[in-house]
Design goal:
The protein has 251 residues and is an alpha/beta fold. Helix 1 (19-30) crosses helix 7, helix 3 (69-83) runs parallel beside helix 4 and helix 4 (108-129) packs parallel to helix 5 (157-177). It is built from seven helices and seven strands, in the order βαβαβαβαβαβααβ. The longest helix has 22 residues, at 108-129.
């Protein structure tokens, strides 16, 4: 049985009906948090809510396209109206609509979509949640960046740049939100077996990306976010934990 180190806490996780986001919600829920999850499709939300409730986790679910202000604010309102506030916020939702070299991305729309969802939406989600996180004991925010924020990749250059931006966003917000008792950190996963990484899994051999000869699992990420949101990480803010199986990370 998991330690109940998040008992009484309220956690909001975006992009949380599968993959890394779902694993984070599951871990936080198993450790006692009430979780509010979201993604873009109602059927995915319903399925994830049912799966989490079957494990005894208290959970609410809502459709949310994080690029839309009214959707972001509705998720925050759900958490506050049902549970009274927010202790843990995890910005996980992200997109990568194009693969290929960055200089071959010829439309501004692709750049706008990636940065709107991956970076700008994270900032405004946090801004909406801030009034309900201020001065709550142990409040924390985790942004999901990526090893690709450190290491360029020819398959998805624009996505890499957006994930580098997340590292800077975490550092700046950590500075500004410290006065409210809120810590801000990043998790930067390596190659994790998810829907988003399918293209990479088809083209990259394990020995090239991991010292420990396996791909990462969403559960690996859930454990780290739970740690970052806990008292055990009370002196960690403005940092990024790289979970890559040994893949080198350098800025």
């Amino acid at each position: 049985m998991a330690e109940l180190r998040h008992q009484g806490k309220v956690a909001v996780i975006t992009g949380a009906t599968e993959g890394i986001g779902y694993a984070i919600a599951e871990r936080l829920g198993k450790e006692g948090a009430k979780v509010v999850i979201s993604s873009r499709k109602q059927k995915n939300v319903d399925q994830a809510v049912n799966n989490l409730r079957s494990q005894g986790i208290e959970v609410l679910g809502r459709i949310c396209h994080v690029g839309k202000r009214e959707h972001r604010e509705a998720v925050i309102e759900d958490a506050v109206s049902n549970y009274g506030g927010i202790d843990i916020l995890v910005s996980n939702a992200a997109v990568n609509p194009i693969y290929g070299r960055m200089l071959k991305v010829t439309t501004e729309g692709v750049w706008d979509k990636i940065f709107d969802v991956n970076v700008k939406a994270s900032f405004f989600l946090i801004k909406s949640a801030l009034p309900y996180m201020k001065n709550r004991s142990g409040a924390s925010i985790t942004l999901i960046s990526s090893i690709s924020g450190y290491s360029p990749d020819n398959l998805f250059g624009v996505y890499c740049v957006s994930k580098t931006a997340m590292l800077g966003l975490a550092k700046n917000l950590a500075l500004e939100l410290a006065k409210y008792g809120i810590r801000v950190n990043c998790l930067s996963p390596g190659l994790i077996k998810t829907q988003l990484s399918k293209q990479c899994l088809r083209t990259i051999a394990i020995p090239n990306i991991s010292f420990i000869f396996r791909y990462g699992l969403p559960e690996d990420c859930g454990k780290i976010v739970s740690f970052l949101a806990s008292k055990d990480a009370a002196f960690i803010t403005g940092e990024s934990i790289v979970a890559s199986g040994g893949q080198v990370s350098r800025l």
